[in-house]
Amino acid sequence: MERKFNFDQILDRTRERSKTWDFRTLKPGALPMNGAETHYACPIPVREAVKAVADWPIYGYPYFTEEFVNAAAGYQKRRHGWDCNPAWIEFVGGIVPGIAFVLQAVTQVGDQVLMNAPAYSPFRSTVEANDRVVVESMLKVSPEGASFDWEDMERKFSDPGTRAFILCDPHNPTGKCCTMEELARIDTLARQYGVFVIVDEVHADFVFRGRHIPYPTVSEYARLHSAVVINPSKTFNVAGFRTGAVIIPNEGLHAAVNKHILAVKGISRTITGVAAFEACYDGRCDDYADAVCAYVRENLLWLEAFLKTRLSQVSLVRPDGCFVCWLDCNGLGFATQKELMAFLDGTGVMLSDGSDYFADGDGRGYVRMAYAFPRSQLQEALEHLENAVSAL
Ligand SMILES: Cc1ncc(COP(=O)(O)O)c(C=O)c1O
Question: Could you tell me if the CB of 99 is within 6 A of ligand 1?
Fold first, then answer.
């Protein structure tokens, strides 16, 4: 049977201005497993929608319709079971800008903003660039997966200086996906100590066990004291459009966030980006979302088996979702993170340095690997790594 999507296809990304495949810096033959993106062709309805805009010879000021917010709300309803009101949604030019707008509205200069570590480093930089203070709560990691340190979480939530918590669910870099019990516990802490919760759900389509639970669905309190940031960028490989949306159900807080969005009037909202966003989310690409998640999950199963049988010096922190994973490389025996990274650099497999994921810059012997590649590329890269480790 002919497959509808060919995720095995290797695309020459030198034609693209891809940051991950930057051939000005990438060594020939190296595989950049350090970019949190997939390497699959984006869905045809998206390409058609963008082409339809591009084919007309004028790119003038656009008017915007309700289709953008309706598409985003519809996707939340269909895919994640959240009865999301389109009126709660605003366009933002990316997840991190969305978080920044919310921080500006719900916290003050000097306030503490809590996040789990390891953390996607732009969370830290946006908090700091907005003159707020980063506080980390370390996740506990083991081969079984990542988990919250609840004692530490309560200590940090209860600090009167802590005004907001950035939750990344599914979590980059560990692939941890929150259960209902965990989200309810966060909600209890948030309620008890008056901490606003900002949730980055950009990886929500990649959940391998159970289903993704949008944080605001946990309770009425959570709905009214949180903001969720979403983007089709990861699922559909459309990050270059710089789209995104922030969802704030609380009317007063929504207005407060919107004031900051309006202060930079229309930033990054383009006719092509809006067309792509709508095509991703309005139902035309749901089958692609299912198929890409299934393919990536197969990659993970393959990767897990490979590490266990052929590269046991590297230990996987078992992810529940996402397409990045957190690898414990302490078994390779390097004395420092710098030596570990120098070794990996020479293998032709580019991985993200664990040092980038902690405020203290100590990588603790960990790296992040992105594995949403055509399977043959993934296999080739892991074999390179295996050979290099054998030669150590
Ligand atoms: C957890 C997380 N949030 C946000 C982003 C960036 O999102 P956007 O496509 O909106 O720039 C990434 C990309 O790596 C990510 O992994």
Answer: no
Do 271 and 344 lie in one domain? The reply is no
CA–CA separation, 42 vs 53, rounded Å?
17
Residue 391 carries which side chain, given as an amino acid letter?
Answer: A
Closest C-alpha among 87, 66, 94, 73 to residue 281: 73
CA of 123 to the centre of ligand 1 (A): 10
DSSP bridge pairs for 317: 326
Q: Which of 256, 281, 306 is the last residue of a domain?
A: 281
pLDDT for residue 339: 98
Query: The domain that contains 30 carries what CATH number?
Result: 3.90.1150.10
Whether residue 253 is found in the same domain as residue 122: yes
Q: Which amino acid is at 196?
A: F
Q: Which tokens go with 67?
A: 């289709």
1 is a domain residue: no
| Average pLDDT score over the chain | 97
Range of the domain at 23: 13-42+286-390
What percentage of residues in the chain have a pLDDT greater than 70? 99
Q: Is 364 left (phi over 0), alpha (psi -120 to 50) or beta?
A: left
388 by DSSP, 3-state: which?
helix
Counting ligand 1 atoms within 8 A of each CB, the residue from 127, 167, 206, 233 with the most, and so the one to mutate, is 233
Quick check: is 88 in a domain? Answer: yes
Give 242-266 pLDDT, tens digit per residue: 999 999 999 999 999 999 999 999 8
Please indicate whether residue 202, judged by its CB atom, sits closer than 6 Å to ligand 1: yes
Task: Judge if the beta carbon of residue 244 lies within 6 A of ligand 1.
Answer: yes
Mark whether 60 and 130 lie in a shared domain.
yes
